């Protein structure tokens, strides 16, 4: 980036404002390199600007700053010690944000827990991560009790007799203020857990590559004072990253506890939102909802999608309905941000994950570990300054020459755009031929009448594995298994035609929208017997 470009970017984001520089410097001195610095800086500059809007109303930056400081003192007064782990088990609402800031101010390491966990999963993860205290939604307390958690519990978004509420702990902090010092914390993000117990990936608050962060802001036209609607779960790396961007820019975030197509569109229109942060399945479900006026979201400048693969048919349908405002980001909890596809990229090359962001390096590697040229498919490896170091339970991702495996397979086209063709461990070997489900899924999803689809491999005595497709039909669609097979046979090689076709009401997905393929394999085997 040249000096002129840097100045223009800083001006657009308000980074050259003397008041902002002074506020940020003061906040950094107070809270160190944590998310609390971002919010305190915004509170000093825009005390009355809404920070969070949720089902309980509006919480302004100054209010959030004061409340989170009191909550931080209260958490320490409960006996928690700086450096310990605080579990955060909340849906999207103000208490998630406040507890996040309070933990940073108290020097506690947040473990972001999935609200979709069963009690057994929850118990195993909290024990493995040595969670010393928990902030939990009232509606999720029964799962915590079933997990037999015997450490301090603070109830968020409601109250339960016999347990401390966030209001109680905040009052305790005000009555017994604790000396709060700037600290460096190491939050723990969990992987999606589609094939087993989620792993914990530790991140350092100082482990962000400024070049990568700047390149994201260059390619996506965020502005100071934007209004974000964030239905993506904040406990996931993608949702949390959008919350951090909003705080950095002193923007407003509109949160709903759970995603619903109608609620999301209504929130965008009502609040004149300029940014919508989603995972791809949310776009699919909004597109598939009858009588939903997507074109009415005229205020949107940015629709940022990440967390799982964005099908080409979905990106094209969304931009046709809403406009060319869609950005597709590719990365992972482990490797950080790798590529970004702009609306222009998505129009020119539907299905692309975009171009490599400055500050990151992405290469395609063959079976022998050597780098492959454009057009050749292989494993994707990423290098940048934001990689995680290791899983909290031990182990790490495979690395070659400082580049870390993303776990995906793909290729670059001649123009430097990345295409992700599938997960390495999703590959199906049928009759000696390699098949990645995404190619078949993208083809079927583009067919009228198909609302959702997943393809998995099932053991087969003759072919090693056979393809089994699970399809969700749109309302009033009339498609037969024979028609589905014919569509694939007309466009793809014979070994890519699914032998089994099962029509289902919905696909099993994680709370972040990823397909639980193992559940479908089990379903296929049960149907066989």
Q: Any idea of the CATH topology of the largest domain?
A: Rossmann fold
Rounded mean pLDDT score? 89
Task: Give the count of structural domains.
Answer: 3
Per CATH, the architecture of the largest domain is 3-Layer(aba) Sandwich
CATH class of the largest domain: Alpha Beta
Percent of residues in helical segments?
25-40%
**Tally the helices: what do you get?**
17
Strand count, sense and closure of the main sheet? 9 strands, mixed
Distance between the termini: 61 Å
Strand order of the largest sheet: 2-1-11-10-12-13-14-15-16
Indicate the structural class. Answer: alpha/beta
CATH level 4 superfamily of the largest domain: ANL, N-terminal domain
- How many strand elements? 26
Would you identify the regions where 5 or more consecutive residues have pLDDT less than 50? 206-210
CA-atom Rg in angstroms: 23 Å
Percentage of residues in DSSP E strands: 15-25%
Shape from CA axes?
A: globular
């Amino acid at each position: 980036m040249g000096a002129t470009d840097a100045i223009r970017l800083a001006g657009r984001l308000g980074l050259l404002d003397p008041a902002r520089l002074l506020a940020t410097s003061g906040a950094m001195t107070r809270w160190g390199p944590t998310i609390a610095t971002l919010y305190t800086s915004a509170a000093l500059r825009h005390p009355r600007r809404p920070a969070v809007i949720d089902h309980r109303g509006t919480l302004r930056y100054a209010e959030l700053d004061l409340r989170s400081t009191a909550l931080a003192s209260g958490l320490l007064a409960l006996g928690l010690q700086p450096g310990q782990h605080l579990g955060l088990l909340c849906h999207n609402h103000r208490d998630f944000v406040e507890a996040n800031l309070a933990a940073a101010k108290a020097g506690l390491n947040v473990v972001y827990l999935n609200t979709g966990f069963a009690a057994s999963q929850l118990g195993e993860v909290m024990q493995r991560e040595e969670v010393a205290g928990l902030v939990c939604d009232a509606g999720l307390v029964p799962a915590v009790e079933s997990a037999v958690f015997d450490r301090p519990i603070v109830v968020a978004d409601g109250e339960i007799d016999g347990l401390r509420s966030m209001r109680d702990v905040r009052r305790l902090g005000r009555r017994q203020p604790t000396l709060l010092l700037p600290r460096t914390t190491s939050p723990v993000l969990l992987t999606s857990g589609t094939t087993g117990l989620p792993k914990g990936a530790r991140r350092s608050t100082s482990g962000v590559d400024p070049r990568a962060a700047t390149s994201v802001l260059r390619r996506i036209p965020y502005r100071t004072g934007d209004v974000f609607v964030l239905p993506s779960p904040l406990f996931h790396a993608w949702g949390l990253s959008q919350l951090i961007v909003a705080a950095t820019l002193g923007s407003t975030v509109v949160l709903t506890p759970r995603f619903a197509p109608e609620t999301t569109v209504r929130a965008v229109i009502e609040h004149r939102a300029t940014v919508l942060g989603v995972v791809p399945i949310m776009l699919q479900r909004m597109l598939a909802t009858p009588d939903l006026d997507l074109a009415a979201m005229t205020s949107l400048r940015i629709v940022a999608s990440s967390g799982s693969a964005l099908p080409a048919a979905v990106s094209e349908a969304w931009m046709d309905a809403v406009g060319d405002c869609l950005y597709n980001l590719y990365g992972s909890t482990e490797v950080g941000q790798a590529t970004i596809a702009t609306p222009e990229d998505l129009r020119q090359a539907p299905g692309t994950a975009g171009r490599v962001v400055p500050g990151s390096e992405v290469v395609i590697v063959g079976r022998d570990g050597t780098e492959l040229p454009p057009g050749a498919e292989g494993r994707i490896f990423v290098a940048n300054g934001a990689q995680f170091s290791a899983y909290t339970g031990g182990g790490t991702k495979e690395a070659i020459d400082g580049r870390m495996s993303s776990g995906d397979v793909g290729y670059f086209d001649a123009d430097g755009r990345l295409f992700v063709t599938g997960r390495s461990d999703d590959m199906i070997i049928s009759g000696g031929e390699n098949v990645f489900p995404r190619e078949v899924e993208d083809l079927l999803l583009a067919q009228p009448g198909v609302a959702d689809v997943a393809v998995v491999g099932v053991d087969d005595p003759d072919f090693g594995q056979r393809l089994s497709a699970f399809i969700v039909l749109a309302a009033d669609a009339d498609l037969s298994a024979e028609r589905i097979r014919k569509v694939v046979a007309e466009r793809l090689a014979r070994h890519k035609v699914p032998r089994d076709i099962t029509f289902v009401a919905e696909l099993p997905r994680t709370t972040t929208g990823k397909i639980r393929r193992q559940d479908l394999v089990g379903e296929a085997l049960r149907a066989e017997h």
